[in-house]
């Protein structure tokens, strides 16, 4: 039995040591990160020394509204698009826990642009549904950084909403402002046109062409209007943390009726421009703007590629309350009739469609092309050797299901698949997305998978793929 007095002495001694170390900035406390959903931003960090900050982020695949009457299956970091805003301090050690909800269908990971290290954390955070991954990084560069999913097909994960912002506050902090908001742009590519009602699947074809139906702030049309508008009072200072998840477009961000007093271009820490009308936000990039609102009224946030605003959704509102300031803005002073000259009627030409040429490939050429497609697209889910991932993705290697029915396998790759199936005695009930591949690519990739990883079958011809399109 030890003497309780001596234990107390030892404990007291350790506390003195710990205190001394903390005073020198050697030891740091541990805290949970405050995470917020857009447009909210976590409070500024008051700490004067680095700490260990623990982040718990959960990936959820959820059906939500993209626009009135239009639903979409979003893949999210925390339940909403954009993902939770994360705020840490320069020098912090960030311990990251990424959880993939068991109801999800896809594996996911996270690439934080704030990370110094391979893939920004992507490889270390690859997480199958029902799993949690952990990794740590030191936030050595201050700035406003994008994070996103980087699981193949990467473009599809980002297009489905997998992006958000992490602010690494500089050691000295940021100047105090009255309001801080989080606004992130992103595009959505749907099978139906803008406004077409119902649950809209993702369109790979439009995504590759970079022709989105929706360009929105904070994940949906109307996310920042009416009672969800941003607010401020005349005389206050506002800081916007702006991000662009893309996946493809650059944003020409503008607030109608305001001028940005300060811009930290591309989300760096320097105020490197003042008195700016429109700031460019690259895809996978950010910007920090600050301005004082002098005059009450509605200020419209837009992507000044203006068809996106009035035809695709990139419109938000900042409502400023307070007293008029006629010295700065008068309001309407006159309305009288004006007769202009001319006024021609414009005509719009429609382009004519051309017939695609028919391609004929030899079997070795199809195997080669098929291997490329497999590596670029299929391997992300079915795994590089076609071995599949237990519980999530069925194997293609020695798959009895694949080899039993050639026609069915064509239908699956052409249309995707969402039903319970049994492959080599194991049940799967996931979603294989419709990938919008052309007939030559479908024929090649099926020829390849049916003759690789221990499989042996006859090739799949382009004609067979074409026929399968008519019969259904
Ligand atoms: Cu993902």
What would you say this structure looks like, in words?
It is a single chain. The chain has 472 residues and is α+β, with helices and mostly antiparallel strands. It contains 9 helices and 24 strands. The chain has helices at 4-23, 154-159, 204-209, 307-311, 363-382, 400-404, 406-415, 439-449, 462-470; strands at residues 30-32, 35-36, 52-67, 70-77, 85-89, 93-100, 111-112, 131-138, 143-148, 163-169, 179-188, 198-199, 214-217, 230-233, 237-246, 251-256, 260-264, 273-276, 278-281, 285-292, 297-303, 315-321, 421-423, 426-428. The radius of gyration is 27 Å and the shape is globular. The N and C termini lie far apart (82 Å). Bound molecules: copper (II) ion.
Quick gist of this model?
The protein is of the alpha+beta class and 472 residues long. The chain has 9 helices and 24 strands.
**Percent range of helical residues:** 10-25%
Distance between the termini: 82 Å
- Small molecules (ligands, ions, cofactors) in the structure: copper (II) ion
Sheet bearing the most strands, described?
A: 6 strands, mixed
Write down the overall mean pLDDT: 90
Radius of gyration: 27 Å
Number of helices: 9
Descriptive tags:
472 residues, single chain, 6-stranded mixed beta sheet, globular, disordered N terminus, binds copper (II) ion, 24 strands, alpha+beta, 9 helices
Secondary-structure topology with pairs:
Elements: H1 4-23, E1 30-32, E2 35-36, E3 52-67, E4 70-77, E5 85-89, E6 93-100, E7 111-112, E8 131-138, E9 143-148, H2 154-159, E10 163-169, E11 179-188, E12 198-199, H3 204-209, E13 214-217, E14 230-233, E15 237-246, E16 251-256, E17 260-264, E18 273-276, E19 278-281, E20 285-292, E21 297-303, H4 307-311, E22 315-321, H5 363-382, H6 400-404, H7 406-415, E23 421-423, E24 426-428, H8 439-449, H9 462-470
Helix pairs in contact: 5-8, 7-8, 7-9, 8-9
Bound molecules: copper (II) ion (CU).
């Amino acid at each position: 039995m030890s003497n309780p007095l001596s234990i107390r002495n030892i404990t007291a001694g350790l506390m003195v040591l710990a205190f001394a170390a903390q005073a020198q900035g050697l030891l740091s406390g541990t805290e949970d990160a405050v995470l917020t959903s857009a447009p909210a931003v976590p409070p500024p960090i008051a700490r004067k020394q680095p700490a260990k900050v623990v982040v718990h982020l959960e990936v959820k695949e959820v059906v939500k509204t993209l626009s009135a009457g239009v639903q979409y299956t979003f893949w999210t970091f925390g339940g909403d698009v954009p993902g939770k805003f994360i705020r840490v301090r320069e020098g912090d050690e960030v311990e990251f826990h990424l959880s993939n909800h068991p109801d999800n269908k896809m594996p996911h990971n996270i690439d934080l642009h704030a990370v110094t290290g391979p893939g920004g954390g992507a490889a270390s955070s690859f997480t199958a549904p029902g799993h949690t991954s952990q990794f740590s990084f030191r936030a050595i560069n201050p700035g406003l950084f994008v994070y996103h999913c980087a699981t193949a097909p990467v473009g599809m994960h980002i297009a489905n909403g997998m992006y958000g912002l992490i602010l690494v506050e500089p050691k000295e902090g940021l100047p105090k402002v009255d309001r801080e908001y989080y606004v992130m742009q992103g595009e959505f590519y749907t099978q139906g046109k803008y406004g077409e009602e119902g649950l809209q699947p993702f369109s790979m074809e439009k995504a590759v062409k970079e022709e989105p139906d929706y360009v929105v702030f904070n994940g949906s049309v109307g996310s920042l209007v009416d009672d969800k508008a941003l607010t401020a009072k005349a005389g206050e200072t506002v800081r916007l943390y702006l991000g662009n998840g893309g996946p493809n477009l650059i944003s020409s961000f503008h607030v109608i009726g305001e001028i940005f007093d300060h811009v930290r271009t591309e989300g760096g820490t320097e105020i490197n421009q003042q008195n700016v009308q429109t700031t460019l936000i690259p895809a996978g990039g950010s910007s920090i703007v600050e301005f004082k609102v002098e005059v009450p009224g509605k200020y419209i946030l837009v992507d000044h590629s203006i068809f996106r605003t009035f035809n695709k959704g990139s419109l938000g509102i900042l409502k400023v309350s307070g007293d008029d300031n006629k010295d700065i803005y008068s309001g309407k002073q006159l309305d009288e009739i004006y007769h202009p000259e001319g006024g021609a009627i414009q005509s719009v030409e429609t382009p004519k469609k051309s017939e695609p040429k028919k391609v004929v490939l030899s079997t070795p050429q199809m195997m080669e092309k098929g291997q490329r497609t497999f590596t670029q697209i299929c391997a992300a889910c079915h795994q590089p050797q076609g071995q599949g991932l237990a519980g999530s993705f069925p194997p293609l290697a020695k798959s009895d299901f694949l080899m039993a029915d050639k026609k069915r396998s064509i239908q699956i790759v052409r249309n995707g698949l969402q039903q319970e199936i049994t492959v080599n005695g194991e049940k799967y009930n996931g979603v294989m997305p419709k990938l919008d591949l052309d007939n030559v690519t479908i024929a090649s990739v099926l020829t390849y998978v049916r003759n690789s990883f221990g499989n042996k079958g006859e090739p799949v011809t382009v004609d067979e793929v074409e026929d399968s399109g008519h019969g259904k």
